[in-house]
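ok here's the first one, seq then struct tokens
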Amino acid sequence: MSPSASMPSLESTGIPGLDNILNGGLTPERMYLVEGTPGTGKTTLGLGFLLAGAAHNETGLYITLAETELELRAVGQSHGWSLDSLRLFEMVPPDGFADDQEQTLLHPSEVELGETVRNIMAKVDEVRPRRVVLDSLSELRLLAQSPVRYRRQILALKHFFSTRQCTVLILDDKGATGSDLQLHSIAHGVISLDQDLASFGAQRRRLHVVKMRGVPFRGGYHDFEIERGGLRVFPRLVASEHAGADIGGAATTNSAALDALLGGGLVPGTSTLLTGPAGVGKTTACVQCMIAALKRGENASYFLFDERLPTLLARSASLGMDLRPYFESGQLQVRAIDPAEMSPGEFAAAVRDAVESHHATVVVVDSLNAYLQSMSNEQFLVLQMHEMLSYLGQKGVISLLILGLHGVTGDIRSDVDLSYLSDTVVQLRYFEASGEVRQAISVIKTRTARHERTIREFQIDRGGLVLGEPLNDFQGVLTGVPTFSGETKTLMASRGETGSGALRS
């Protein structure tokens, strides 16, 4: 038999996201180490692994050296699981706590190491499981008292398990000082679970595969959450792994003037960044472009960071762009996101789901400022946004990104510069003319067409942005203090009046 023919198929871990990272799952009949500090989800992962096997009529054995069977069943109940299909074996016998026996809660640490290992082996021979979870190595490490003896016993367990045709997960809470590299060298694969506490908001959980022999796994950190039903892992988004889609011609924004400013409209597979101070009309411009796609029968997804969904629906309806019918029909997917509770990996997974399951052709992120606050380091935001925009571009999706700027006039700055990542940058600004505060719009760059290099005044009316004719008498727009020095008659008429300068779509 050839080596390729003798290779067994991979076994699922019971976690789709983790299987994706491992390129299918775990090689069967090997011993794996799952390490992490208390609370990172090792027990939940182990139980999910056994239940995945039980779903295919594989016998699963959970050997616990520290927890009781009652505690394990409580963990299963918290996830809505029944553990009746598993064999649970606790190394602390109930009679070990009798009054006539001076035992403590750390009963396994008072038993000879050889006896503990023999009990484990005897239970495996009795049950003959296909999948085993051993929880945890901390007790064995305490019993060993020396690194040499500890390594010898782990090697003995590894050899024993290899002759019993079972796949083994050994859990470790990183109780040893520093990294237990000798255990890493013994195990066929190592999965490390981490959790970090931010200054505000929920803890961030992430995992990475330290090693996995014979499996081309996806390296790096991957965010995950512990939810009812087990671990939910969000594989790190890698744009190059996703095939590209055919990209059509430019799509209209339902405004002839805005299309002209953009050089023909919004091109599928490109990202457009709208920047400007608060209240200048960035969200309105995005909603107008999205409404145009919805009217064409396309699907759209709106990721809302900065305001509540009822506020967005009410404000859009007051401008004659009622989103509620599209939202209720499912054509429009709006997801309000709390950046303090969502990890960047989970957000990337939500964007993927919007494209691949909801078939969205337009994705709006409102705004990047709040998304930035969910990241511990600005550099990571830029890297993740680069992958996300590359992925959306390959899928032929129109991406609309909103970036709020600090201040209203003068030295206006943003939290981070993402203009080089975007295919098109639209700048919205306030300016003063004849004692009134007005709004101007210009396109700084676009990679897909020859755009207008003019500045147009605009007003927000029913139906979205209404743009005026190009204004040539501006100075200092790029400094953040636009100054209009032309004649008043070239400006748009005030709202409610009829102005020849307004170019309505």
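and now the second one, same deal
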Amino acid sequence: MKVEQYVMAYRAEQDRLRAMLPEGFTSLRPVLRINAEIRTGEAENVYIEYNTPVEGFGKRGWLNIAHWESPATELSYTKKENATTFYAPFLEITYTGVGLVGGCPAEKDNDGCFYGETFVPAEKIDENKEYCNCAFQWKFAEGNAQGISTDGKSIPAIPAEQKIHYKKQELTPENAANIPCEQVLGAYVVKFERK
């Protein structure tokens, strides 16, 4: 299967993330991440997932908040020059390549991804990543997180000491999308073959 994987991370208040994590997980950084993939095999489909970095059960990685896949969910994309835009009833996100290539620092601190009680080891991708600018808006409700980057660079996310103890909330995409985006931290696209 051929995959075009578009990844974006943004800073969000870590105390609010802490209040949503299920038992057994701790927040590693004040980050929410959106991955969007165009997958081409016998047929083409679009996949989007929403994650936050955690430590749990002796592993460090990404806790999946939600994931959606076409055709079960109404997902589509368009390409215009060096920009790719993904559309969903609840999200619009555009990645615009800037021509610079490199790696992703967060990958060095990633054992894999937690999908509920299932842990999936990290996928090894050797291909170069092209940095992107990114603009996004969650559309679950008015006032959901939105943001834009303009310099095509990656910015580190430094863990924040807990200051506020929020009331416990369920970890849902709607609740996570309600946490404002403080800053887009970086985005890239990578194209590879998935076995």
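notes on #2: The domain at 2-193 is CATH 2.40.400.10 (Acetoacetate decarboxylase-like). The helical segments are 14-18, 173-177.
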